[in-house]
Amino acid sequence: MADVVCLGEALIDFVADVSGVDLQDAPGFRKAPGGAPANVAVGVAKLGTSAAFLGKVGDDPFGKFLARTFADAGVDTTKVVYDDSAKTGLAFVSLMADGDRDFTFYRNPSADMLLTPDELPTDLLATCKVFHYGSITLIQEPSRSATLKAIEAAKQTGAIISYDPNLRLSLWPSEEAAREGMIEGLPYADFVKVAEEELEFMFGISDVADGIDKLHDMGVALVAVTAGPRGCAISDGERTIRHAGFTVGSEDTTGAGDGFVAAVLHHLVKTGKTRPLGSLPEEELQGLTRFANAVGALTTTRKGAIPALPTPDEVRAFLDKH
Prior knowledge:
The protein is α/β, with parallel strands linked by helices and 322 residues long. It contains 11 helices and 14 strands. An 8-stranded mixed beta sheet has the order 4-1-9-10-11-12-13-14, with helices on both faces. A 4-stranded mixed beta sheet has the order 3-2-7-8. The mean pLDDT is 95.
């Protein structure tokens, strides 16, 4: 059994082997394991908390590579489903000169889109302490129904529910569908991590404090708003703690948000938090904000999300220097 169960997409990122160009001008690519919920599972495991990944991949070399990579990082992959009728999803990624990432996805459909409610492992969902999901599996059926069923199953047995409304406009039928779908996933969650641009996209709110209030009004107990190199804000409904971020030599921002989420989920398990999440002592909230920011910052200092996700010793050493 695993303390943290993450459900969602696992795919291969083909990352441009040079930075500062868009996909059209990238001369070549290197293979890297990806998928936000899978990254979170690996991040949790590398921090020392047991984690499992639920999802569907193709019964192909890429799917087997993903499962092996996650397992090698300490993630329970025994419930990963292999589909012989659809391929593992692919994404081509390039870091452009302005720091933004250029994405193109190949999913027509990919195996992760085809996870069905009947393929969910009830034992893992009934025993986990935290269940985490993202917005990508809410885009279409049958993965949408599978995600909603998993949320309900985990919630019924008392698990803390965590959600990342990950904005990938090109995967949705329209901008409005993306907005509605991302918002749909919010009311189920006890903890939500959202980037500033995602907050503005969903609600048209540019003021972080107003956005935090909006999410609390929707029933989210613990809210984290990330702002890349400018740090983050975490609110428990009674107080909001802000951290200005850490100055690091950033190599690749892929997975930084997933590392941040992993740090929060690790903390919730380590400190024995249960539903319903209440307010945290101010000192604890300050420590959590600093810790999660450190994990996110460290994840940017190496190329690739999974190789860059840090261990506890690496986080401690980093915090000792900062």
